[in-house]
Amino acid sequence: MVFDLRFADIGEGVHEGEILKWHVKEGDFVQLEQLLVEIQTEKVNAEITAPVAGQILKIHKQEGEIITVGEILVSIDTEMGKKRVEKASERKGETKKTKDSEEIDDSPLFKASKPMKVIRTGKKLSKSKPSKVLAAPAVRRLAREAGVDLRDIPGTGPGGRITRQDLDAYLNSQSKKRQPRVSAKAHVIGGEERLPLRGIRRTIANAMQRSKQTAAHFTLMDEVDVSALDRLRNDLKPFAEKYGTKVTYLPLIIKCLIPALKKYPYLNATIDDEKNEIIVKHYYNIGIAVDTEQGLMVPVIKNADQKTIWELATEIKELAEKARSGKLTLDDVTGGTFSLTSIGNIGGVMATPVIRWPEVGILGIMQKKLRPVVIEENGKPEIVIRPMMFLSLSCDHRLVDGAYAARFMKEVMRYIENPALLAFEDEI
Asked: Which residues are catalytic?
C-alpha cells in the first residue's frame, strides 16, 4: 500500500511553504514519527514527521522548491516497511514472544488499529552512531556552527530528540568553540557572488513585497523628549531586579501606545478587501520586531493592554529568545494588531518602517541621543540638553490620513513625555 503524504493546511492563511531540508532520501526505510523534512512557511518553520512507517518511494519536492497546501510531499510504501520488520524479526528469532525476552518496545511502527510490538533479545545494543537523529532546525543550525555531529549527543527529549539543553551540555563538556559557517552555497562568477534566495530571507522578501503592493504607505516622523521616561526607568530598576527582569524602553512605550490606540482606533484595525469593510480591533496585540541570525521575526504580545510592565518586559525577553533560537510557534507570530520596531540599540536617525500587513500601522523607535533643544519657561526661551528620540510612524493611507496619524503620534508622545499620565489613563 502506498501512502501519499500531502502538505497540510496549518491555518492562519498559510497556503505554501519552501522545502528547506530533507532528512531522508528515496529508498530509505522510516519509522512512525521519524523526521522527514523541514519546511519554511510564511509564519514559522514546520517539521514534518512520518505518519506511517515504510520505505520512501518518491520525494515529490526537492530542497528549495515551493509546495502548496494539498500537494504531495512524499510517497511511502507501507507494505515494504512491514516486510522489512517481519524479515528482521525472523532473522533474530523474534516472531513470537518468549519468556527469555528482556525488553519489549511498545512504540507503534505503523498507523494501524493495533500497534505492532517488536520483541528484542537480550543482546546489547550497538554503540555505533545512529543514522538519523531528531532535533529542531535551530538545534541543528547551532550544532553545524559548532562543528558538532548530533549523532554524538544523547537526546533526552521525546523519542530521543536532542534538545537545546542537550547540545549546550555537550558543548560545555567538550569545551569546543563554535565556528561560523556559510549556510548557503554560493555560485561565484568573476567578481560577483550569487546566493539562493531561500528560507527566512525569501519569506521576508515576499511579505515586504506584498505589504508594499497592498498598503498605501506613508511615514510620519517626529522627535520626543524621553527625560521623564528615563527617570521612570531608573526608578523601576530595583523593582525590576525583584521580578527578575529588565525594563527597557519597549514595555514602557507599549504602555504609552495603548491609550493612543484606544483614542485613535483606526491605527488598530485592518481592511477586509473582499468585503470592503474596516475591521476595528478592540484588543491590543503588539508585534515586536526581533533581529535574528535567520532574519527579521515579529512575535506578538497578546492582550498587551491587560499586562503589567513586568509582564510585558518578561514576555518581550522570552519571545526574543524564542525567536533567536528558532522556537517560535504559529501562535507566537500571528494575530497582531499593531507593531513596534526598535533600531535604537544599533543606531540610525530616521527610518521608514514597512507595515506588517494586514496591520495598518507600525512605529519605529530610533536611537536616543543627547541634543540641544529650545524650551520656553516664563516666556523666555533657552537652550538645554535633553535625551531625544526620533519616532517614525508608517501607516496605510487607505485607512489612515496624515492628520489622523499626526494626532495619534502626538498622543503617544504626550504619554512618553508624561508617563505619570498612565496612572490616570481612564480619566483623561
From this structure: 397
Cell of residue 77, nine digits: 510504501
Which positions ≥6 away from 138 have C-beta within 8 Å? 164, 325, 326, 327
DSSP string for residues in 1-55: -EEEEEPP--STT--EEEEEEES--TT-EE-TT-EEEEEEESS-EEEEE-SS-EE
The phi and psi torsions of 354 (rounded to 5 degrees) equal: -90, 130
H-helix or E-strand spanning residue 270 = strand 269-272
Asked if 271 contacts 360 with a C-beta cutoff of 8 angstroms, the reply is yes
**pLDDT of 280-314, one tens digit each?**
999 999 999 998 887 888 999 999 999 999 999 99
Amino acid identity, residue 117? K
Is the overall model pTM greater than 0.85, yes or no? no
Rg (CA), the chain: 27
Continuous H helices in 105-192? 137-146, 164-174
Q: How far is CA 399 from CA 184, 277, 354, 358, 412, in A?
A: 41, 11, 16, 12, 19
CB-based contact 356:287 (threshold 8 Å): yes
C-alpha cell at 409: 503620534
Q: Which residues lie below 8 Å from residue 131, measured CB to CB, with a gap of 6+?
A: none
> Whose CA is closest to 280, among 330, 334, 338?
338
Query: 238-250, pLDDT tens digit by residue?
Result: 888 887 888 889 9
3-state class (DSSP) for residue 179: coil
pLDDT tens track for 245-281: 888 899 999 999 999 999 999 999 999 988 999 999 9
Per-residue pLDDT tens for 165-177? Answer: 888 788 877 654 4
Nearest by Cα to 371 from 226, 253, 229, 234: 226
Separation between Cα atoms, residue 195 and residue 201, nearest integer Å:
11
